[in-house]
Amino acid sequence: MARLRREQLAGIGIHYIYYPLDYMLDAQQRAGYKTIELLGMAPHYLIDYKGYQDPAEMRKKVEDRGMTIGCFTPECASYHYTMCGADPGFHQRSIDYFKRGLEAAEQLGATKLLTNCIGGTWDEEYDRVYDRAVESLRELAPVAADHGITIAVETVRPEESRVVITLPELQRLLRDVDHPNVKAGLDTVAMGVAGETPRQWFEALGKDIVHTHFIDGRPYAHLVWGDGLFPLERYLDVLNEFGYEGLLGQEITDGRYFDDPAEADRRNVAAFEPYFVD
After folding, report:
1. Which of 31, 37, 123, 234 could be cross-linked to 71 through a Cys-Cys bond (beta carbons 3.0 to 4.6 Å apart)?
2. Of the listed ranges 7-21, 51-65, 68-82, the one predicted with least confidence
3. Full domain range(s) for residue 81
4. pTM of the shown model
């Protein structure tokens, strides 16, 4: 039977966008999360290319509720800061932003930072955008190592980027960056949209998968488990078969959950209850 340690399930707060930090943390504690993946976005944690909100204060709020921050994800999908922006000034500010993110991640107690390779414009040649992704990650990798952080790079949907949206592209990217602090992040929705499966990912990347956004989908949307079409137990079986011990970030983003995000978390954790081993 599929199994999961409770600490591997990580709450994410996107669906609490209209609620303050303390409300979100209280709700996720009640839902049964022991770990969270903290997003660097308003209204919960502020970060830009110059600095960031006090990590010690944030870490205390989380740990006082019996939870820990396992992964820090600076907001990287709204085009405020992106890995592959073409304008030199914007690109440098984005790199500085991710460097601040790595600093904050260490102080928050996280061991992973998740990002992606969006930011190239649709009229740019593929190779120019791809090469910029490689160069950016090569610059960030030694900074990540200095802070004891592993960068997990996820694929995204074709509406978000024209590069690194499939498993083979991510394999190539990791080979070209070639740094032990840059690894793979599996997003089940991006995976499903690309027509891929968890088994294909683990057969291709194995231990190089260090983080997941493990959510339900159709394959689009980022849904509470049970609201989509993905087979939860079968996917967990694959993670078990390949010995995956990383986090399963619950990236619930669909607008249907914005009114009552606490109920969404309650239902979501309940879907995993049969599989917890502790």
Report:
1. 37
2. 68-82
3. 6-275
4. 0.96
